[in-house]
Description:
27% of the residues lie in helices and 16% in strands. The protein is α/β, with parallel strands linked by helices. The strands form two sheets. It has a nine-stranded mixed beta sheet with strand order 1-2-5-8-7-6-9-10-11, sandwiched between helices. β10 (281-285), α9 (293-296) and β11 (305-308) form a beta-alpha-beta unit. InterPro entries: 5'(3')-deoxyribonucleotidase, 5_3-deoxyribonucleotidase-like, HAD-like_sf, HAD_sf.
Amino acid sequence: MTQNFRSSHFHMQSHRAPQPLLFERCCGLPITGELVLRGFSGNRCTGFGLKACVQSPKDNYSNGSFGLNAKGPTLVRRPQLLNSVDIDLVDGIDRRFSSSVHEEPKWGNPLTFHEFSSRDKLVVAVDIDEVLGNFVSALNKFVADHYSSHHSVSEYHVYEFFRIWKCSRDEANIRVHEFFKTPYFKTGIWPIPGAQSTLLKLSRFCHLSVVTSRQNAIKEHTLEWIEKHYPGLFQEIHFGNHFALDGESRSKAEICKSLGASVLIDDNPRYAIECAEAGIRVLLFDYENSYPWCKTECGNLPPLVTKVHNWEEVEKHLASCVLP
Length: 324
């Protein structure tokens, strides 16, 4: 989702009973329609909504297109979308899936909040890698096994891998994209402890969206991973397409501004400073004080940046934003 959003919109709705797939088309022209994508488990329905930049059927479909292919009952058709894409997940919290990550709060009783209306919720943007899942450790294992480049995670003092691996920037980008094709990436990234259970609680008073620097090339797998480990928790998913082999990129500050996000949760000090300078509060996530890149790049952090070391601290800080 790296380009301008002067686009037709697909809007998603959640339904209690099966509905036909609606797709209005005006031949040869840009289209506006409603695409209903649904899934069923028992008597409960889940759904995806897609906002897409859609072109004429005569347009070149090889330019910037990608297919969304979620496994299981979530989607009833594999649509081909063009160019920038925002994915809206608006089915809310489906508590049946919360057992997919077996987590229990480690401290006290959970905070209690009244139900917030959608417009009153705090808009929070959440990074993926090292905030929701352990990307670096999986990548580090791949590089060791395939390139005989042996490092510990403690050596990753910057989030610029070519500096750690002692290779060119282009070579590092190629290695990362090779990693994307392997089981190290596809099945080797696990949720950060405490994230799923905390986000479930936060969803009562926060409008949660993903803002990731991940590349367009791994959109499809990223969506599947999020729906597997964090089902129904995020309203929107935005890709910055940073460090990509092709395509335009979009800064996290720009994405957060477009969302109206008040808070970003991220592990990268550079993004934290960038967003703080744009007036966005940042919780800089350094899980159990174990991320070296969170230390060497920090220096004097802006007042809007606060260090947190686990998801319990995230919950406390966000609760302080809404509690009287």
